Amino acid sequence: MELAKANRARATPRHGGRVLADALVAQGIDTVFEVPGESFLDTLDGLYDQREKLRLVTCRFEAGAVNMADAYGKLTGRPAAAMVTRGPGACHGAIGVHVAYQDSTPMLLFVGQIPHEDTGRDAFQEVDYRQMFAPLAKWVTQIDHAKRIPEVVAHAVDVATSGRPGPVVIALSEEMQKDQIQVPDLARAAVSRAFPDPDAMMRMRTMLAKAKKPVAVVGGSCWTLEGRAALHRFLQANNIPVTVGFRRQAHYDGTLDNFAGDLGVGSDPGLIGKIKDADLILAIGSRLGDAVTQGYTLLDMAGSIPIVQVLPDGAEIGRVFRTALGIVSDLNTFAIAAAGLEPVKPAWSKWTQELRSLREAQRAVPNYQGPLNLGTVMRELEGLLAPDAIVTTDAGNFAGWATRFLNFSEGQRYIGPTNGAMGYSVPAAVGAKITFPKRMVVSMVGDGGFMMTGQEIATAFHHGVAPIVMVFNNQMYGTIRMHQERSYPWRVSGTALTNPDFARFIEAFNGHGEVVSETTEFTPAFRRAVESGKPALIELRVNPEQITTRATIADLRAGKTPPKGTPKAKRAPAGRAVEPGKKRG
Ligand SMILES: Cc1ncc(C[n+]2csc(CCOP(=O)(O)OP(=O)(O)O)c2C)c(N)n1
Ligand SMILES: [Mg+2]
């Protein structure tokens, strides 16, 4: 109604930039993350007029801006917009499009484009975005005529949020943003959510009733509060052991008795072994990708363990592993329908207990070498996180500490790049905190990942929000060092790092810095970080020898002979002794 009135009352033409800003508002977008460029001055001007309704977040790096938009999409299930300039801006931002694509996050990315009349001249910063983003985005388009703006933006939102959600890239020809036109705004389409076929739901129930060892694998995006609650009701009522997919850790309440842990990188080998004994897999929202299925080996492709796979896009069902039953549905409506089914009489309580006890055994903290026990730190963090805390993660071995030792409870969220992109965590935390300023937001990141996009902490200061960043500093690209030691033991090549003083880095912004070298220092440091009310950084001085939660560098080298020419001093298995990096002080 309001829109119709505004359309009738609008007597004067608007420039394309303003039409775009109005179209975003009309489609329910409320946040734009951007790094400016002269290619979209008119759009920035349009956003100025809509500043009451559109929060404009000025970022420091396009990858950061797009990752912030991804975090917004992951946490709300709705798309945010990101805006970057042509050529270089689009290239920097591309990583975030890849994350959103692989992670099924709804998002709109606007790219300023060169003047249309110069197309094909290799003009300044010219790129053909339809080609560049073709394999990265769900849809790529370009607006060359301002009168098409409302239509394209409306369709872009529909594409980004329907079926398997994903990113849409929209290039904006420079001159059409300046055109003065009269065009009505378009309302949001009222599209109902796809419901599961009731017959398929009954078939699933029958399969479940026959099973003796079912396992659920929960993943996917755009879960609502209602959908999550229904999912928990269904899985609890049937006492089904629940695993979560890679970087989807908080999709299920880890404190419940049927939570069995995560399937991903660095997961419990005991749990992975047990999945092979299952006689029914309920893949709810999980694409059963290579991280979850341990490089497509966990299940066999012919489907000897029957798989029920629930996804919003039928084309994704059974993509690698043949399914016994595919259910095309919005995940939330599926969960609501599943919760409405009469529970079967589960005959597998021992099986559920067995899997749960594996999880509990994994959470028992070993006596790790060195003064800082990260297992204990994670267990303590569990008690320090607010009930509605949001934890963001990066790619890297450090991430294994949280997934192994920390149980997330129902109100908490955990987001990270399932596509394994480093540099995600800090911008995601800034984006999360801007989206939910009242919630505690904690970023976990390695020293490698932090130095990729840690400067986005400046955006937190600029917008007055205070996330807490935990930097796991092992002075190396630890994950790659791990692979290196497995394939080429003792030959450390291209993986050692020299770092700044991280605490002083954040203090340079007038933020709060902490250094934690010993286990007992962590809890007070975290509390001080929270109490400071400022963006905070806690550097965790990690023992580089402890390369994963389960292995030391010495373990990786065990049984192997040092290659000829390895100096005597380096033959010793200790990571600290061999790492050429500086002594930490
Ligand atoms: C953008 C990007 N570049 C490179 C890689 C390859 N890679 C995966 S993990 C990793 C090392 C991560 O180092 P760090 O952040 O310090 O975490 P750690 O593994 O040491 O805990 C690298 C280089 C990647 N996944 N993403
Ligand atoms: Mg590292």
**Hetero groups:** thiamine diphosphate, magnesium ion
* Whole-angstrom Rg: 25 Å
Contiguous helical run count = 23
End-to-end Cα distance, whole Å, is 64 Å
Task: List the SSEs and their pairings.
Layout: H1 2-9, E1 14-15, H2 16-26, E2 31-34, H3 41-49, E3 55-58, H4 62-76, E4 81-84, H5 88-103, E5 107-112, H6 129-132, E6 139-143, H7 149-161, E7 167-172, E8 180-181, H8 198-210, E9 214-218, H9 225-237, E10 242-244, E11 259-262, H10 269-275, E12 280-284, E13 307-311, E14 325-328, H11 331-340, H12 349-363, H13 374-384, E15 390-393, H14 399-405, E16 413-415, H15 425-435, E17 441-446, H16 447-453, H17 457-462, E18 468-473, H18 478-487, H19 502-507, E19 512-516, H20 522-532, E20 536-541, H21 553-557, H22 568-571, H23 575-578
Parallel strand pairs: 2-3, 2-4, 4-5, 5-7, 6-7, 9-10, 9-12, 10-11, 12-13, 13-14, 15-16, 15-17, 17-18, 18-20, 19-20
Antiparallel strand pairs: 1-8
Helix pairs in contact: 2-3, 2-7, 4-5, 4-15, 9-11, 13-14, 13-20
Bound molecules: thiamine diphosphate and magnesium ion.
Thiamine diphosphate binds at residues 394-398, 420-423, 446-449, 472, 474, 476-480.
